[in-house]
Design a protein that fits this description.
Largest sheet: none
Oligomer: single chain
Number of helices: 3
Strand content: under 5%
Order of helices and strands: HHH
Helix content: 40-55%
Distance between the termini: 29 Å
Number of strands: 0
Structural class: mainly alpha
Length: 121
């Protein structure tokens, strides 16, 4: 397996695992998360401002009547969005590094001072 195929398999496995975990998202706690809970406990929850925009409000796809299915779909959409952003950022950084290396703006890797296997010069 080549280096590129290895990375592709690793990324696919990670995304696949994340998608599998979203199947269990309807069983997550119904209580608010940490920050929201602290705000409720200390009485300043009403002062919070809503987000500028919401892709999936309250972790449920609008228009889907079955709450569990709506939650699972929102998880799948979230995983795919995060994976796409990660791939775009990674690919962009790789292109920048290749461009810098091709233009010579990056220093070359130092020669290895580690001795090779026995019997080599």
């Amino acid at each position: 397996m080549g280096k590129r195929a290895g990375w592709a398999a690793l990324i696919a496995a990670g995304v696949g695992l994340a998608l599998f975990i979203t199947l269990f998202s309807p069983f997550a706690s119904g209580h608010p998360d940490g920050l929201e809970r602290v705000a409720e406990d200390h009485g300043f929850h009403h002062q919070a401002k809503g987000p500028v925009f919401e892709i999936i409000p309250d972790y449920a796809v609008p228009g889907v009547k079955n709450e569990r299915v709506a939650t699972i779909l929102s998880g799948i959409i979230g995983v795919l969005i995060v994976a796409a952003i990660g791939l775009i950022v990674g690919y962009s950084l790789k292109r920048v590094a290749r461009s810098r290396a091709a233009s010579g703006s990056l220093p070359s890797a130092p020669e290895s001072t580690t001795p090779g296997p026995p019997g080599t010069i």
